């Protein structure tokens, strides 16, 4: 696996790349077309930036408006090492925090570039009119997020993702207005078209008419977001899916870090069997909220009646130097440990408390309301509980996929001309992502990296023969997509797609979630195989082939069933604990993760071999020139 | 609890439609309204019928994709709550609930409860942005924004584009939606330069779509999930008139 890392010292690599990247003559740019699948932060920023340079762009999303991509739901903030607080931040420190946060399972060069480009993103967003929080002096405000000891998180109340996305959306709308971007909402990508080893187009389904359509281009960008929804109950949106990347995977793009899934420590707990999603309560709450459970297992008293000495602030106890701001993987696992030990609270005994009484006492209710008002309101809307008066109930939930399609330093997958941006790629977060780094990564990929690397690729395609949608590769891909749809519609069994999705989710939470074991993973692989067979026997999709959400769901679940099996294989093959990947067999006596750098200091990239063939593993060794591998400790 | 439902069913854009009755047992209070519809769809699949199509995605009140008229009110009985955040604890055993799509000439129905809100996107395309291309931005702290100005801009920018304001308005006016954007951008120093053209272009596009005029009934603010203030409409009208008086027509 060649990551194509530029030569030179770490701090100069990105400059070196930019200085040597090929350019396309402005007159030629409008003749070059790029397809962008996804209008989240990564897709919208990439599509707008390429159009501004003069390229023709076709852009797709499955929602009814590009402004609704799930980036919109990010609450807490976005990191940048501006060092406005003069608290010792720097590009290097942010780089180091991210590498360490990822448990030394990401590429130095990528992570350095992420930190290096972070400052420019804040500049860009402010110029677009993103209303970040301000000090009374008019300067930008910052707060802290988990896993770091500096204040480098920029935020717009509890709706940072929405505001950043609206900035990118508006930039995209401006380009639609100029005619350089053709926007296709309510379209779902069903397949990638590869011609002579190069990505040259896609097959999409118009979700209103049901018609399959073909689009050809000189390069294809996938910015289709994360696949955490595979767990069914998650903090993701209902439509989030792996289909775009999975179908590209089946066309030859490798998947990497597949089982590295972040389970967020502060989501609302499941409250019943009909539940369709778990709402996140931003991690920023941990700046002022303290997490605890009753010291006595099974204590049923009202939280306000439990006196201080009978509370266990377990994060402060176990990780005194980071306390409530310990990284997500560690906080989630610590919560699970307490819940499993019988200290869980709430009706289903599946939650822990997040308590603001101390902060309200110290700072006043108004200050807390200014910082988190919308989160408290949201909490009340969903649970009916006033969190100013009693602690919130929170619990871990599947949230973010560090894994995704493998990309090299230029964000190109193993298929030439197929670029993968944002959460859809595996790149910068290693085995665990730090809070507020992922909005950043999606934006940096789209605004600052792809606008150099895609033109560099296109420069080499200028003289290539243009592929049109009449090419036989399009006939084949469309016919396959149609066959798949016909198959799903024709099974006519007795169980809806949700049934399979929920069962798959439950199985993955059990065996490939916060903690994994050889025995559990082997069982999961077997059971997912059975579930998949049952799916093709008993699935029932009603309705026609026009607007049909059941058909859409079924297609996504079919892909999830294949991806779920690969997640388990990936987790099984990695015989160590690192970041979010906690193998029960590899832990210290006090329950901390035990990494194995001798045997597993690599990224696992998996190649598809066909439906009934096992995937082939291609390790990409991780070489650390700048940092010394150390045990990650937040004690 | 047992809930009776009367739901708008329509096969296709511009096609005929009508209310159809359903009864759903075993509804629990902690179900969200959309989870109740999921359960109904589960029953319909069991019977081999086409499911009820409705829009939704985030299910946490921020994407703006959901939106139903519930007993004649946009997003249902609670003020400032999206349909996806409404829970069945707001209803009682034996209730009959009427569910219809958001209705407006500018929002054609696609199927059942799904509508086409692309008119909103076209309004933003006409000028709802600050033209700051990638790479052209100055150092962020070189643009000072007073704390209260940033907060006020945020209040306007918080709009989720769900269309409840239009659905509620007896004239199907988009004034609240459009003003939220013009005010958000023109409050900020970065967005002032383009403010006159922006307000002209966006209002022209709003009028070109089939939205009606605003007659200041203020019903929109009551339903808005983000509590966007109708004062923004006054600010927009003022900016619009000022730009025309100064002769800078869009
Ligand atoms: C609740 C929540 C809170 C978060 N909070 C934070 C935070 O505070 N800070 C932070 O840094 N990160 C946060 N994250 C993570 C971060 O928001 C995401 O990782 C990031 O926004 C992903 O952006 P994206 O552009 O890659 O994907 P998305 O924004 O998910 O966009 C995906 C796009 O792809 C399109 N798409 C997908 N599949 C298809 C298909 N098959 N065909 C056509 N189009 C398709 C969708 O329509 C959409 O437009 C949060 C995540 C969640 C879920
Ligand atoms: S589904 Fe996103 S706002 Fe309701």
TrEMBL record, chain A:
**Chief subcellular site?**
membrane
Name of the protein: succinate dehydrogenase
Q: What PANTHER family does this protein map onto?
A: SUCCINATE DEHYDROGENASE 2 FLAVOPROTEIN SUBUNIT (PTHR11632), SUCCINATE DEHYDROGENASE FLAVOPROTEIN SUBUNIT (PTHR11632:SF53)
Give the record's membrane topology. Peripheral membrane protein
* Residue stretches making up the FAD-dependent oxidoreductase 2 FAD-binding domain: 34-439
Instruction: Name the needed cofactors.
Output: FAD
Single GO molecular function: flavin adenine dinucleotide binding
Q: Boundaries of each Fumarate reductase/succinate dehydrogenase flavoprotein-like C-terminal domain copy? A: 501-634
Assigned GO CC terms: plasma membrane
By sequence similarity, the record places it as follows: Belongs to the FAD-dependent oxidoreductase 2 family. FRD/SDH subfamily.
Among SUPFAM superfamilies, the record links this protein to: FAD/NAD(P)-binding domain, Succinate dehydrogenase/fumarate reductase flavoprotein C-terminal domain, Succinate dehydrogenase/fumarate reductase flavoprotein, catalytic domain
Q: What is its EC number?
A: 1.3.5.1
Keywords from the UniProt entry:
Cell membrane, Electron transport, FAD, Flavoprotein, Membrane, Oxidoreductase, Transport
Q: What is its subcellular localisation? A: Cell membrane
Highest rank taxon of the organism: Bacteria
At the top of the EC hierarchy, this enzyme's class is oxidoreductase
- Active-site residues, as the UniProt record annotates them: 328 (proton acceptor)
- Pfam families given for it? FAD_binding_2, Succ_DH_flav_C
Gene Ontology terms describing biological process: anaerobic respiration
Automatic annotation (TrEMBL), chain B:
Name all 4Fe-4S ferredoxin-type domain ranges. Answer: 150-181
Pfam (any one): Fer2_3
**GO BP:** aerobic respiration; respiratory electron transport chain
- Which residue windows are transmembrane per the record? none
List the InterPro entries hit by this protein, alphabetically: 2Fe-2S_ferredoxin-like_sf, 2Fe2S_fd_BS, 4Fe4S_Fe-S-bd, Beta-grasp_dom_sf, Helical_ferredxn, SDH/FRD_Iron-Sulfur, Succ_DH/fum_Rdtase_N
The prosthetic group or cofactor this protein requires is: [2Fe-2S] cluster; [3Fe-4S] cluster
GO terms, molecular function: 2 iron, 2 sulfur cluster binding; electron transfer activity
Which family, according to UniProt? Belongs to the succinate dehydrogenase/fumarate reductase iron-sulfur protein family.
Quote the protein name from its UniProt record: Succinate dehydrogenase / fumarate reductase iron-sulfur subunit
């Amino acid at each position: 696996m060649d990551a194509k890392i530029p030569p030179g010292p770490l701090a100069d690599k990105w400059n070196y790349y930019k200085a040597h990247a090929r350019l396309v003559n402005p007159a030629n740019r409008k003749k070059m077309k790029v397809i962008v699948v996804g209008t989240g932060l990564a897709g919208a920023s990439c599509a707008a930036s390429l159009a501004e340079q003069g390229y023709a762009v076709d852009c797709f999303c499955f929602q009814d408006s590009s402004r609704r991509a799930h980036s919109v739901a990010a609450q807490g903030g976005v990191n940048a090492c501006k060092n406005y607080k003069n608290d010792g931040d720097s590009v290097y420190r942010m780089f180091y925090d991210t590498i360490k946060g990822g448990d030394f399972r990401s590429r130095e060069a990528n992570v350095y570039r992420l930190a290096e480009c972070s400052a420019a993103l804040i500049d860009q967003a402010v110029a677009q009119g993103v209303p970040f929080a301000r000090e009374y002096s008019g300067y930008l405000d910052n707060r802290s997020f988990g896993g770091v000891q500096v204040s480098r998180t920029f935020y717009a109340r509890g709706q940072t993702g929405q505001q950043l996305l609206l900035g990118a959306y508006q930039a995209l709308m401006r380009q639609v207005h100029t005619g350089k971007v053709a926007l296709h909402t309510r379209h779902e990508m069903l397949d990638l078209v590869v011609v002579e080893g190069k990505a040259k187009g896609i097959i999409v389904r118009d979700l209103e008419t049901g018609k399959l359509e073909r689009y050809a281009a000189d390069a294809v960008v996938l910015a289709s977001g994360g696949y955490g929804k595979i767990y069914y109950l998650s903090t993701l949106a209902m439509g989030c899916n792996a289909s775009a990347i999975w179908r590209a995977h089946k066309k030859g793009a490798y998947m990497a870090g597949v089982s590295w899934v972040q389970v967020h420590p502060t989501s609302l707990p499941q409250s019943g069997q009909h539940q369709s999603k778990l709402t996140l309560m931003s991690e920023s709450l941990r700046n002022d909220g303290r997490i605890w459970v009753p010291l006595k297992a099974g204590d049923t008293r009202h939280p306000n009646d439990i006196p201080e000495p009978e509370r266990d602030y377990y994060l402060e106890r176990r990780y005194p130097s980071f306390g409530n701001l310990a990284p997500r993987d560690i906080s989630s696992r610590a919560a699970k440990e307490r819940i499993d030990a019988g200290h869980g609270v709430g009706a289903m005994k599946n939650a822990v408390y997040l308590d603001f009484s101390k902060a309200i006492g110290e700072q006043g209710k108004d200050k807390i309301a200014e910082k988190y008002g919308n989160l408290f309101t949201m909490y009340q809307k969903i649970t009916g509980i006033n969190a100013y008066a009693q602690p919130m109930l929170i619990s871990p939930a599947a949230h973010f996929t560090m894994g995704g399609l493998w990309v090299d330093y230029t964000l190109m997958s193993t298929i030439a001309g197929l670029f993968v941006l944002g959460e859809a790629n595996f790149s910068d977060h290693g085995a665990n992502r730090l809070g507020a780094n992922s909005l950043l990564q999606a934006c940096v990929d789209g605004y600052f990296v792809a606008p150099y690397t895609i033109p560099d690729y296109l420069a080499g395609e200028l003289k290539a023969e243009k592929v049109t949608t009449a090419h036989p590769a399009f006939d084949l891909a469309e016919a396959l997509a149609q066959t798949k749809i016909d198959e799903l519609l024709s099974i006519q069994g007795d169980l809806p797609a949700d049934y399979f999705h929920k069962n798959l989710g439950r199985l993955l939470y059990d065996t490939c979630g916060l903690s994994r074991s050889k025995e559990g993973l082997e069982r999961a692989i077997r059971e997912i195989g059975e579930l998949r067979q049952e799916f093709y026997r008993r699935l029932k999709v009603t309705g026609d082939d026009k607007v049909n959400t059941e058909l859409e769901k079924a297609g996504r679940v079919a892909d999830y069933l294949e991806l779920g099996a690969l997640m388990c294989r990936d987790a099984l093959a990695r015989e160590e604990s690192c970041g979010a990947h906690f193998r029960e067999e590899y832990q210290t006596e006090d329950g901390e993760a035990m990494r194995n750098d001798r045997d597993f200091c690599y990224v696992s990239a998996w190649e598809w071999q066909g439906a009934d063939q096992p995937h082939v593993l291609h390790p990409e060794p991780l070489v650390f020139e700048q940092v010394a591998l150390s045990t990650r400790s937040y004690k | 609890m047992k809930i009776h439902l009367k739901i708008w069913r329509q096969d296709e854009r511009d096609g005929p439609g009508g209310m159809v009755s359903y009864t759903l047992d075993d509804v629990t209070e902690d179900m969200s309204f959309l989870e109740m519809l999921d359960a109904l769809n589960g029953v319909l699949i069991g019977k081999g019928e086409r499911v009820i199509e409705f829009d939704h995605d985030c299910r946490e009140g921020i994407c703006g994709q959901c939106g139903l008229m519930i007993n004649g009110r946009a997003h249902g009985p609670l003020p400032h709550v999206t349909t996806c955040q409404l829970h069945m604890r707001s209803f009682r055993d034996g209730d009959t609930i009427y569910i219809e799509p958001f209705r407006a000439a500018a929002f054609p129905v696609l199927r059942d409860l799904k509508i086409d809100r692309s008119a909103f996107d076209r309004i933003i395309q006409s000028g709802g942005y600050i033209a700051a291309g990638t790479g052209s931005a100055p150092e962020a702290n070189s643009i000072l924004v007073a704390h209260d100005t940033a907060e006020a801009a945020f209040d306007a920018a918080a709009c989720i584009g769900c269309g409840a304001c239009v659905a509620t308005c007896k004239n199907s006016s988009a004034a609240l939606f459009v003003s939220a954007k013009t005010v958000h951008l023109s409050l900020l120093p970065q967005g002032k330069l383009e403010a006159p053209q922006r307000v002209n272009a966006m209002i022209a596009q709003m009028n070109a779509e089939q939205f009606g005029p605003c007659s200041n009934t203020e019903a929109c603010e009551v339903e808005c999930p983000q509590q966007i203030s109708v004062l923004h409409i006054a600010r927009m009208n003022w900016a619009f008139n000022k730009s025309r008086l100064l002769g800078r027509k869009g």
